[in-house]
Structures are given as structure tokens and as C-alpha cells.
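Page header: ASSEMBLY MODEL / two components / 849 residues total.
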Amino acid sequence: MGRTDLLTSFLPLHLLLFDIIDTVRALGWSGAIDLLRNGITLGSLYALIALGYSMVYGILKLLNFAHGDVYMVGSFIGYGVLTALGGPLSPKLALTPLILLIFLAAMLGSGTLGVVIERFAYRPLRNAPRIAPLISALGVSFFLQNSVLLLFGAQHRLWDPFDLGGNPARGVPGPLTSPVFTVKGVPVTVAQVLVVSTAVALMVALTVLVARTRIGKAMRATAYDREAAAMMGIDVDRVISSTFFIGSVLAGGAGVMFGLYIGDTYHFMGFLAGLKAFTAAVVGGIGSIPGAMLGGLVVGLAEAYATGYVGGKWSDLVVFSLLVVVLLVRPTGLLGARAIHKV
Amino acid sequence: MDGPDLPVIPERPDAVDRPRIGVDEWVAQAEGRREAYRGVSGFIRRGWTETPSALKLAVFVGFAATVPFYLNQADLFSFGIFTLLYAVLALGLNIVVGYAGLLDLGYVAFYGFGAYLYSFLSSTHSERIGTHTYHYSFHWPAEASIPTVVVASALLGLVLGIPSRRLLGDYLAIVTLFFGQAFVVFVNVADPLGLTNGPNGLANVDPLNFFGYQLTTRKQYFYFLLLVFSLVVVGLHLLNQSRTGRAWRALREDPLAAEAMSIPVNRLKLMAFAFGAATAGLGGTIFAAVQTGAFPGNFDVSLLITIYAIVILGGMGSIGGVVLGALMINVPFELLDPASDRLGQARVLLYATIIAILVAKVRPWARLGALLGGVLAFGFAVHAIVAAASSSWTAGTVAEVRGTGQSAHGFAAAVEHWVLIPAGHGRFGEWAYVGLIVAVLVVTRLRGLWRTLTLVPTLYLVAIAWENILAEQPAVTRLILFGALLIALMNARPQGLLGTARVEII
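Prediction written out in full:
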């Protein structure tokens, strides 16, 4: 056995590194831009979901495991509206009102679901030991996932974004996949622009809501000190309900965007998306709204580049290592405030 | 515990809804003790707390030792072996969650690691990746492989624990959850050096083989598992009574105060992780030997939920509770196995459980009688009215005889005359399920007479949903039930069946 044989059999990581460099060279600049585009789109989805995690964590110090499944239910509601209006191949409405209607239904539906979950699974546990609501959240997540499996089955629902709004009988593709502009020969499609711009619009709206409105002020006060806020006459229950509503609305919107962009809805989609979005929230600094946005971008880019350069099967592990490294180096996240331990 | 001599604590005026926060722990436990001494359940509970632990273990082991004599091979496998295996796993999780209070959601990964490592050390497999063929053939005897697996699992627990030890409860939960996920990706997809044989898993694993004596029959495995279980129980009992056990409880109640009392918090967290992981690895070893292989699909989130349901149902921190939980979770789990064809027994168990919960919870007896009678009468009335309107709405059959051409008899036939089962039931079951969820949510918001009145149609909806949709997909149903159980227990009785009530002291 020669020296190289020894290397190939015992040091696959060493080979992997060469593979990665080769792939980077082969893909070139356009490949890198391609991945950048995918990463930004994916990242804005994660950021939207991460906002819900982050807001709830900021106010209740509760890790809402069920949030990913609210996103899944939002996607299902969107698909339900799409099929009720004729399905992706022959919708009864024009494309723009159809998409608006889908967004509206999914956001309201998942917003309501979020409020119901808070009311029945978390509110009775507000003064219980810390571990109780976490386990309850785990139960809600599992319950939602399997209820959807029971009611709708395990098959993937395909949104067919390629044909949506086009004329499949004549072979005319829909407008969602046509390019808006190109960067160095890499096309950026309508769906991608739609996802990123909707996400940005929602985040701007959220920032304005939290910074400028009365309810936003109440939210910040409640997050800062729940008891003091209650003493100042803030209806804490209502604030928490609205926080869940807003977070779930964003998750529902993300669910629809995933449908319009990737076009795949199934009962287990919330699990990994939820995990990655939570990673995004932690990487950015949990409890911080700009942090969630930044974290979403970082996670989305990490996943896209890992998929492109290392291979899809490693992407989850890369995101996981990213989480561990950030937690080790900066436990409060990139933009998180230093936590003060109150005794 | 001198129950009857407890001083009477005056009831507070806002006793119903007052937050259980800031209450002195002694007061809280005194209240718990007073509750425990009432009625039949109080009698049972007093018997339970006053029996010495060794006697309890002896009674359980003595009872379990007779089990192989009246269960056939298949039943011994699914009910006997798996109940004990789940009990061992739940005992390990109990160290991490129950004693030390760390929410470890990657626990199944240690179980999987144990199973894979044992399989790797006791099988032959080869795999071709690219141009290189990897070939592994180890056939270690069990007296060498079991200690190796246990020590390696404990080390893996330490490796996961070291970066996690600084994390607060919630971060720990997510890191461990990711770790569990990464483990499945690792063995299933990544498969470095052909170690884990990818999605095919490791098959044809040797049975356990001690000094040349092989365990081959299920009966032998059952007794071996019973021995392991007893050792783990004794070990954990001693550990719990020891200095370390007390330190863990202090850590669980208040890490900050524990640290101030010079308890080495980090080291204790790592120890809890290592002990839990070692127990899980041991369980995994036996699992791999019993099913002669380890496959990536064995270690998913649903197993995690099952083990959590066991620990939480029985009561976090209680060894007896964990065993009770393992029995109460595994029996319905196996009855609802789609391959086992036991839907009839599952149905009897379901209705019996509902009645038992009502008997335990609904007072006075007159109301209980009225409720049960009301549900029966309501069902027959609805059935009669719908049958008169359209006979096809009641022409359906129960799930286990559907499509077999047979007709139901006994209890199932009686159920067919009471529950609405439309012939081609289409979406009826799905609507019934959604309606059931809404009805349960409404019932939890109501009090007094209104609650009793709403319970009547709700209980009937349970029967409709069960017969029309849940019994058709038992594999999904059991997972839904565990999810619902976690939520319901956390709301109704966070300490589980045999745990002690805890109060957050601020």
C-alpha cells in the first residue's frame, strides 16, 4: 500500500478539502453568485421564521418549539387556498390577487393558530418551573405535525411554481420563474425577488410596529420586565397574545413564500426549518429583531454555500457547527446584548 | 412523614387561581401531603410512599419474572422486552432531566450510538465508496463490547456536554436537539469510511455472547434485560441518595444558589450527561442485539417523544414512576402497532382509560353517573336520529373488520350500534377530528355545569373520531396521543403520576 493509498483510506477529510477547492474553482464566479442569490433568498425565509422565535423568547423566555410547525401549517393553508381556487395549473384568479389572497389567508390562519397555542398550551404554565412550557411546546410541535399527517397524509404537495400563472397546455411557463435581471449571467427570478422583497417589507413593518406604535412600546416594556409592565397597567396577556400573533403571521408568510419559491409542502417541513430558524435567532442574538434578520442571512448563506461547495448531505451539519461555534465564542449572538444575571 | 399530625394551614381566599410562585416549599409540600392522604387514591399513595424501595423492586422483579410463562414469543418481544428497554432508557433520561433538570433533546443519539457501536463491534460488513472497498469484521464477545460501548457512550456524553455546559436550559435543548438530528444525518447520509453502512444500516449482528454462552431465545433476553434493569435501578437509587444525587437536585432547583453553596455546577452537569449517555448506550446495545441490527430509522424524533412521555407521565425524578410510565406508554404503543392487528384491544383500552379518568376526576358521584349515562344516551339518540334520516350514515363498520368481509362481534359490534360510522366515510372522520380538537379546547375553558354539559358531546366526538379516523391510522394516532399527553400533563399535573410537586421559589 503506497503513501497515497494510505491517505485516501484514512484521511477523507483531507480529500474533502481538495474536493471543495476543486468545486469552488469549477463553479467560478457565476457559481458563487448563484449560491449567494440562493442563500439570500433562503436566508430571508429563515429570518422571517427566526423573528417569531426571537420575539417570543424576548418576552416569555420560552423556546417555542411549535413555531416551525406553525410555519408548516401556514404553508398548508396557502396550498389549500391555491387548490380551492383551481390548483396551480388552472387557477381561477389572476396571479397577483391569487398570491395576495394566499398570503392573507395563510398569515391570518397561522396567526390565529399561534394565539390558540399560546392560550391553551403556554399561558397556564406561565408560573410553572422553566422546563414545563418547554415540554409542552415539544408536545404541541409533535401534535401539530402528526395531526397534519393524519388529516392530509404524508404526500408532498407541489405548488408547481414553474407553471403557476402560465399556460401549461401551450407550454408557456408562469412568470414566477422568469428572470427579472441577471448578475454576471446569473438570472434572478421573480419568485426570488418576491420572497426577498416581501420579507424585507414585513421586517420593515415589524420594526416600525415595535419602535413606533403603542402596542410595540408595550411589547418592549413587557420584554424588559413583565411584572413591572403589569404594574404600569399594561395588559400583559394581551401583549403576549399579540406577540404570538405577529410572530405566527410572519411564519405563515414564510410558509407561503417557501411554496412559491421551492414549491413543496409536507407535514415534516417545519422541523428542520424551525431548527435552522432558531439557529438564525441564536446566531443573531436571541431577543433582538435586527439580530434575527442578520442571523437568518448568515444561516441561509452558510447553508447555500455548504450545499454548493461541500454537498447537500453536509449542509445540516455545517449549520449545526455554525450554531455551536457561535454559542462557544459569543453566547449572546452577534447582535445580542450581554445578558445580566439577576439574582 | 407524620401526615395526620400536620398543622392545619388556613386556606387563602384566592386559592383557586393564585400563582404557585413564591410559596414556601415546605408549605407547598405540606399541601401536597394533605391532598395525598384523602380517599382511595390517598390510600394507594400512602402505601406507595411507605413501602421500602427494596421491597418495591423485589415485588416488581418477582412479578416480571413470571411474565415469560404466559406471554407467547411475539408478545414477549413487543410487551416484555420493549417495556423493560424503554424503562432502562427512561431511567437514563431521568438522570439528565429529572435529577439534574437539563433538557437533553439529543438523548436518542446516545441510544443510537450504543446500538451502532455494538453492531459495529459484532458484525461483518463491507461497503464500496468510490474506488475503495471498506471491510470491517469484528466479533467481540459481549463481556468486552458492552463495557466498551458504555464507556464510549459516556465519553460521547462528555463531548456533547463540554460545549453545552455553559448554556442555559433553552440553548442546551436546541444544541442537543441538533445533535440528535446530526447523529441521524451522520449515520444515514454522511457515512464516513463506510463505518455505518448508510441507509442500509448494520445487519446480521451477533447475539450477546458472554464467555462463550450465547443468548438466543427471547426468554433469555428478557431475563438478561430484567437483570440489567434491576442493576440500573439499584445503581440509580444509590446514586440519587448519594452526595452527588443531592447536589443534582440542588442544581435543578436553583443553579445559582447551588453554585453559591460551592457545588461544582459544571462538573455535575457533565456527570449527569455522562451517566445518562452511558445508560442510553447500554440500552442501545441490548436493542441492537435483540433486533440483530441497527438502522438509521430506529432513532428518530418519535422515539425521543416516546421516552419523554414515559419520564413525564411517571413523574420526573421518580424511579418507580418511570417504570410505571414505561408500562403505561409501551402497552398502548404496541397495541397501536399497525403490524400487530390488535385494534380491538386498543379500543377496549381507550374506553377503559376514558372511564377511569372520569371516575378519578369527576365528583360528586351523581354527576359522574349522569355524565356517563348522558354520553351513552346521547350516542344512542344521535345514532337513532341519523339512522332514521339516512341509513348509509350508520352503515359503516369498525376499522379492524373494514375490508375483510367479516362482521364485528362483541364489544366492537356494540360500538357499531352506538357510534356514527358512515359507510363510505370520506372526509367525515377528518371533520370529526378537527371538531374534537375544538371541543376539547372549549371544554378546558368552561367550568361547573357547562363543562359537564359540553363534556357529553365531546366524549361522543372522541368515539366518533376514534372509530372513523384514528383507528385507521394507528401509527400516527399513537404519536398524536403522546404529543397531546405531554401538553395535557404539563397543564394538569406537571409532576406526573408519582413525582413530587415542585414550586419555583423566587
